[in-house]
Amino acid sequence: MVGAKGLLAAETLRLAAAHPNVVECHAFSRTPLADLRVVHPHLPQQQTVRALTELPDALAEALLRGPAAVILATPHGVAKKLWLQLQLDLALLEVDCDALRVIDLSEDHRLGPLEDSGIHSEQIWHYGLPELHPLPASSRRVAVAGCFATAMQLAVLPLERAGLLQAGQPLILHGVTASSGSGAQAQPGTHHPYRRNDFHPYALDGHRHEKELCHARNFLVAPSLVFLPYSAPLGRGIYLTAHLPLHSGVTPEQLQEAFDRQYCASPFVELCAAQAPHLRAVVGSNRAAIGWHQRTGFAQVFVALDNTIKGGAGQGLQCLNLMFGLPETTGLPLAGLGY
Ligand SMILES: NC(=O)c1ccc[n+]([C@@H]2O[C@H](COP(=O)([O-])OP(=O)(O)OC[C@H]3O[C@@H](n4cnc5c(N)ncnc54)[C@H](OP(=O)(O)O)[C@@H]3O)[C@@H](O)[C@H]2O)c1
Question: Which residue, of 19, 85, 192, 249, has the fewest CB within 10 Å?
């Protein structure tokens, strides 16, 4: 686990501690620590944080013992450089990188070429959102979808794939996010006294997660899209509302069928049909709750999920489960906290 002092690392380590197939899990940071609980006091046991410089040797040793994975929970721009360096270091140690599974929770590898573009398997980064982009067990590198990008695609793609969306009209999306979306360091936009009674839109000229929805893996021709994110006084969670233009004559049964067909084999998706889901039902879980409502030629699709779990660390472990041939639900929380 790289980026140990961050929020997604903390969430990954918390979930990994309850995962039946995780034999050992090590935390790496730019600055080592005797006990990670100094920064993450909720973790269940004392854990030494090792220096990032020890990672290549630690991985080489782990791979001698059995299958191993590295999870990069670092800021955008950092993960790609770290992975390039790690490959060089492992090559010097004569370690076969193909045996290693890599999960990148940042956006560094999300927008690369399509998986079927003919690039050598070791270099292919699969996109981690298994409900919509099936992940082969042979995947070795996975770039986990962004938190807003997960909610957007869960809302839009079932209707797009069912041919129900009216082309040529913009997709209008509003997303509300909690402060944990901005990571562990307090900033003016996330600092508690400023945030707790505040609510406002941001990124008015476009949010970087829009590219993930409009990527060629989803649309042959990128749709016109207006996405407005809002910063809300919440600790965890994302709530997305998508206003999607429908072909005339689309019936409620067709909407239901499109969502049913897409998610009938998805244990982490809960369909709430003609209801708006509540965040409190999913926060603390790896579930996404999806509801919808049809009005004046539009489908309003609602998605609620926990940005740090289904939108981040949980989805990363869900992908790792699939990469190791395990049931995708292994070790992941299905129940939300409720309040
Ligand atoms: N928070 C969310 O809801 C969420 C959801 C989905 C995806 N993501 C993405 O996941 C990644 C991690 O998010 P986060 O919320 O955990 O961020 P975070 O709390 O800011 O943690 C990032 C960690 O990366 C390490 N780091 C920072 N700068 C570094 C550098 N230059 N070189 C090496 N390591 C560095 C630091 O750990 P050390 O001090 O221990 O080295 C830091 O604590 C980000 O790319 C983020 O966009 C976040």
Answer: 249
Dump pLDDT digits (tens) for 28-40. Answer: 999 999 999 999 9
Q: Where in the chain is the domain with CATH 3.30.360.10?
A: 147-307
Tell me: pLDDT of 21 over 60: yes
Q: What is the dihedral of CA 210, 212, 213, 216, to 10 degrees?
A: 130
pTM to 2 decimal places? 0.96
Checking if the pLDDT of 228 tops 90, the result is yes
Q: Which two tokens stand for residue 149?
A: 């990008």
Of the pLDDT bands very low, low, confident and very high (cuts 50, 70, 90), residue 163 is: very high
Ramachandran sector of residue 74 (left: φ over 0; alpha: ψ -120 to 50; beta: rest): beta
* 273/252: higher pLDDT: 252
Please name every residue paired with 298 in a beta bridge, in sequence order, or none if there are none: 245, 295
What lines the ligand 1 site, CB under 6 Å? Answer: 3-9, 29-31, 73-76, 78, 105-106, 146-147, 180-181, 183-185, 307-308, 311-312
C-alpha span between 267 and 270 (Å, rounded): 8
Cα 3 to middle of ligand 1, angstroms = 6
**Test site for ligand 1: of 40, 72, 74, 108, most ligand atoms within 8 A of the Cβ:** 74
Domain 147-307 has CATH 3.30.360.10: yes
Q: Are strands 288-295 and 238-245 parallel, antiparallel or unpaired?
A: unpaired
Strands 298-305 and 238-245: antiparallel
Domain with CATH 3.40.50.720 in the chain: 7-144+310-323
The CATH superfamily assigned to 7-144+310-323 is: NAD(P)-binding Rossmann-like Domain (3.40.50.720)
pLDDT band at 96 (very low <50, low <70, confident <90, very high): confident
